[in-house]
Amino acid sequence: MIVNNSRPDSDASVITISDPNQFEYLITNLKKWTEYRVWMQAGTVIGDGMKSEALFVRTDEDVPGAPQNVKVEVMNSTSIEVTWTPPDEKERHGIIRGYQIHVQNMNPENVNPNAAHIPHTIHNGEATRYVVGGLTPDTKYQVQVSAITRKGDGTRSTHEAVEMPGGVPNKPALLVK
């Protein structure tokens, strides 16, 4: 018998093994990163014996769902603050160990694809904000956030667009002839 640990024993699924020589059984279709109670009960034509003590097991981690409520605020011509909330509890699929902030340059004249995407990794599962600096004034960016478990980074959030304001002009060159 097996049941999600948050449910009562009466909700348990009964798995019948008819072969008395079968000593292993693979339970499938379980939810990711979920604790279950598993126990056995032997029976004969006369009746069932006592239940074994419950064994508590947890399924493996997986990549998480997308962070929620992503917002991007311009701080100055080269910096933005990105805020978010963690993925929904049912979508975490493990322990959130950090986040990745994905910043994509959306200007069509950007010809260097390697410079177009700037990932920033935060190794703090409790983080809910991050300041991205070093951006280019007068440039459009697309920002997404993904959460990280031991299995890797998960689904990215929806795109948030931001346009950086113009910065102060560079120092003019002085040419003397």
Write structural notes for this entry.
This protein has one helix and 13 strands, in the order ββββββββαβββββ. The strands form four sheets. Strands 8, 9, 11, 12 and 13 form a five-stranded antiparallel beta sheet that branches. Strands 1-2-5 form a three-stranded antiparallel beta sheet, with no helix packed on it. A three-stranded antiparallel beta sheet has the order 6-7-10, with no helix packed on it. The model has no long low-confidence stretch (mean pLDDT 90). The protein is mainly beta and 177 residues long. It holds the Pfam family fn3. Residues 151-162 have a biased composition (Basic and acidic residues). Residues 151-177 are annotated as: Disordered.
Provide tags for this entry.
Immunoglobulin-like; 2% helix; mainly beta; 177 residues; 3-stranded antiparallel sheet; 5-stranded antiparallel sheet
SSE inventory with pairings:
Elements: E1 2-4, E2 35-38, E3 41-43, E4 48-51, E5 55-58, E6 68-76, E7 79-85, E8 98-105, H1 113-116, E9 117-122, E10 129-132, E11 140-149, E12 152-153, E13 160-163
Antiparallel strand pairs: 1-2, 2-5, 3-4, 6-7, 7-10, 8-9, 8-11, 11-12, 11-13
Short description:
With 177 residues, the chain is mostly beta strands.
Q: Which class of the largest domain in CATH terms?
A: Mainly Beta
Shape: rod-shaped
Distance between the termini: 92 Å
User: Can you tell me the residue ranges where pLDDT is under 50 for at least 5 consecutive residues?
Assistant: none
Structural class assignment: mainly beta
Describe the sheet with the most strands: 5 strands, antiparallel
